[in-house]
Design a protein that fits this description.
alpha+beta; Helix Hairpins; two-stranded antiparallel ribbon; 69% helix
Length: 138
């Protein structure tokens, strides 16, 4: 393989690394967003724990849309898939949310490790390209 082909090969690999870094960064942002949402849910569950039975409350039906209701009991309905719902007390629900947060934080660490490895390879490629460029000039 001649010098120009080698340079072109490294440059293409470098561009692919840049794309991979962008994808990993997007994944990282999405997972961090999910973690923030779950932490908000956990905070809301903590507040809901303090609500007294038969209290009036507003329930969100969507962005900016609420319905007024009365708390008959504090059991929550959790969607476990295929439109199947199960009743769970607040404490059990908080444990499930905490597990989900832990799983997502594990994914964050994996993505960060992958980002570090790709970034390191990107720096290596950059150095290789500079060396090839120097050889080409001679």
């Amino acid at each position: 393989m001649n010098l120009n082909e080698e340079t072109q090969k490294r440059y293409i690999e470098f561009q692919m690394m840049e794309q991979q870094i962008k994808q990993l960064q997007q994944q990282l942002m999405a997972v961090n967003q999910q973690i923030m949402e779950l932490k908000r849910v956990d905070d809301d569950l903590s507040e809901f724990e303090n609500v007294k039975k038969d209290s009036k409350m507003f329930f969100s039906l969507g962005p900016g849309i609420f319905a007024e209701g009365t708390i008959a009991n504090k059991d929550l309905l959790l969607n476990i898939g295929s439109n199947v719902m199960i009743k769970k007390p607040i404490l059990d629900t908080k444990k499930i949310v905490a597990l989900q947060i832990d799983e997502l934080e594990g994914i964050v660490h994996k993505i960060q490790d992958d980002l570090g490895a790709v970034d390191l390879r990107g720096h290596e490629l950059q150095e290789e390209l500079m060396e090839l460029d120097t050889k080409k000039d001679k």
